[in-house]
Amino acid sequence: VYKRQVCTTEIDLIALAKARTRILVSHDMRPTSLSSRLLIQSLRLVKAKLTARLNSRVAEFARRVEGAGN
Fold first, then answer.
1. 67 Cβ partners below 8 Å, 6+ apart?
2. Is 37 strand, coil or helix?
3. Does the CA dihedral 38-53-48-23 come out positive or negative?
């Protein structure tokens, strides 16, 4: 329903050592209408919870990728 917003997600993989890589995930949302501005404001209220969920999902993804390499 919120068709008027710009979203950008960046995933950076940084090699730390031969067997270690750091994953950095960033997400940016820019509202372009009043309805999308209200959506963004609602998301700000639950930002900590959403961040924790994203962190756990990225960690699970990293574990699966690490397990697939063995």
1. none
2. helix
3. negative
Strand partners, 11: 25
Q: How far apart are the first and last CA of the chain?
A: 43
Beta bridge partners of 21: 15
pLDDT digit string, tens, across residues 7-51: 899 999 999 998 888 999 998 999 888 888 998 999 999 999 999
DSSP letter at 18 equals: T
- b/e sequence 13-45, b meaning 16+ C-beta within 10 Å: eeeeeeeeeeeeeeeeeebeeeebeebeeeeee
- The angle, 0 to 180 degrees and rounded to 10, between the axes of the packed helices 34-45 and 47-68 is 80
Q: Rounded to two decimals, what is the model's pTM?
A: 0.69
